[in-house]
Amino acid sequence: MPRGIELFPFSEYWWVYAVFLVLVFVLLALDLGVFHRKAHAVSIKEAGIWCAVWVTLALLFNYGFYLFAKRELAADARLAGLPGFDALVAAREAALQFLAGYVVEYSLSVDNIFVFVVVLNYFAIPTKYQHRVLFFGILGALVFRAIFIALGAALLRFEWVVWIFGGFLVYTGARMMLAKERGVHPEQNAVIRFFRRHVPVTTELHEQRFFVRLSGRKHATPLFIALIFLELTDIVFAVDSVPAIFALTSEPLIVFTSNIFAILGLRNLYFLLRGAIDRFHMLKYGLGIVLIFVGAKMTVLNRLFGGHFPITWSLGIIVGVIAVSIVLSLLIPRPPGDEGKPPFPLPPGHESVTEDEEDRTEDKEDRA
Questions:
Q1: How far apart are CA 119 and CA 229, in angstroms?
Q2: Torsion angle of alpha carbons 29, 256, 72, 12, nearest 10°?
Q3: In terms of C-beta density within 10 A (0-12 exposed, 13-18 middle, 19 or more buried), how is residue 77 classed?
Q4: Beta strands 217-220; 211-214: pairing state
Q5: Cβ–Cβ under 8 Å, residues 88 and 255
Q6: Fewer beta carbons within 10 angstroms: which end of the chain, N or C?
């Protein structure tokens, strides 16, 4: 793929983004309005089926994207004049980049699941209402991810930003493997504390409603507070995941579509893994290695390989590392005394959305 050339510039392919978003909203409407219209507890079997459905849809989209790219790139006069350009090779590489980005984002989503478990348990959200909270959390994530990807596409045009992003990914990967595991404390969230001071919040749920009117005044329910915290958490996690995919491809269209497809399957992955998340205690090391690898690819490996590290090698390394860490998690029991601890340390910057200045001051005084 030619270096420095954007295969799918937004100015020419904005309609692809529009069609993709329409497809996403149609799928979400069917999900909530048809298949999950009535609140119910999602079983492991149902979650497994839906996980398979979303993964299958992502793979079908990937194949369709390959066919689309092959046709469009072959007919693009802008690219035809480039020496050595092969539309078939470029389309194949673009499809592999989508697959690699999807695998990385889907894998990194596992640490989101731990936070989901803690937050939904903390706010005592019944299982039958959890799907609704996660569904609207996905809608918010779509907006924030689009903003992050647009900013990333603009910033990564500068070489020094590439080095900063790559270094941040290496640091995050090392921290994920070595940092002390911490819990999540929704009650210390600065935004939620501010919200509670200005908006009345009920002490009990009102079925699956986010707001209710009591004594002539609108009140938020704990369901809405849980949703706020999940949105804040996703913003922090996006700081890691979006640069990680940009390390695999410079095409914003591929970053956006692979990221969104991974997010769409996150709710059902949560229902599938929530009871067994502690068993994957070695996965944090695998994900840490993956982040270090993609950071190194972004900064060093691409330059050592003449501007582009082979995407087939990247995909093989990513899948292999994650698979090995999962197998090791199942073969090696968790050390005694670690039961109940979070399987992943929180990402850098999470403290800024889980503690306000007063909390940090109190912690410093306690340590003193």
A1: 8
A2: 100
A3: exposed
A4: antiparallel
A5: no
A6: C
Nearest CA to 116 among 234, 239, 259?
234
Query: Which helix (H) or strand (E) segment is 225 a member of?
Result: helix 222-246
- Residue 117: how many other CB atoms lie within 10 Å: 19
Q: Which residues pair with 213 in a beta bridge?
A: 218
Q: What is the mean pLDDT of each run of 10 residues along the chain (368 residues)?
A: 73 92 86 64 77 92 95 86 83 92 82 71 76 80 83 78 81 76 59 74 76 83 82 73 81 91 82 69 81 83 75 83 86 67 50 44 46
Torsion angles phi and psi, residue 64, rounded to 5: -60, -40
Q: Report the alpha-carbon distance of residue 233 to residue 227 in Å, rounded.
A: 10
Sole residue written with tokens 């329910």: 221
pLDDT recorded at residue 168: 79
Q: Which two tokens stand for residue 339?
A: 């039961």
Per-residue tokens: 125: 């959200």
Identify each DSSP E strand in 178-304 by its residue range. 211-214, 217-220
Provide Rg for the chain, Cα atoms. 22
Question: How far is the C-alpha of 97 from the C-alpha of 99, rounded, in Å?
Answer: 5
Q: What is the largest CA-CA distance in the chain?
A: 73
236, 189, 197: which is closest to 358 by C-alpha?
Answer: 189
**Entry pTM:** 0.74
Q: Please, what sign has the CA dihedral across residues 330, 346, 236, 293?
A: negative
CA distances from 345 to 160, 172, 283 (A): 28, 10, 12
